[in-house]
Write a structure and sequence with these properties.
Elements (H helix, E strand, L loop, with lengths): L13 E4 L4 H13 L5 H4 L5 H12 L6 H15 L10 E3 L9
Parallel strand pairs: 1-2
Length: about 100
């Protein structure tokens, strides 16, 4: 019988970015897709996908964000991370901020 390990983050609502450059890649993908540029100070306080959505809307001068913008952000995150499952506005970027997934 094979026992597959379950990652601790599997039951948490997080993208599980690890600080190993994957967060930079994701933010660069967002910048390209929305034709915007982030400054370091813009991204230092990001915790959740909702925070990222608000920042994108602010940079685009379209606040609050449109549903279309949210769908694009979700698609970018899924493509970048290999479809991590359900993503909502409470989904954290880093596991250290994560809460259990709502069922």
């Amino acid at each position: 019988m094979t026992i597959w390990p379950i990652k601790a983050s599997a039951h948490l609502n997080t993208l599980n970015l690890g600080g190993d450059g994957d967060e930079v890649d994701l933010l660069e993908d967002v910048e390209r897709n929305f034709s915007i540029r982030f400054q370091q100070k813009d991204v230092e306080e990001l915790v959740s996908m909702g925070d990222l959505e608000a920042l994108v809307a602010l940079k685009r001068g379209r606040y609050p964000a449109s549903g279309e913008d949210w769908e694009r952000l979700g698609r970018i995150a899924r493509e970048h991370l290999g479809n991590p499952g359900r993503i909502d506005r409470k989904t954290t970027l880093f596991v250290k901020f994560a809460q259990p997934r709502e069922i």
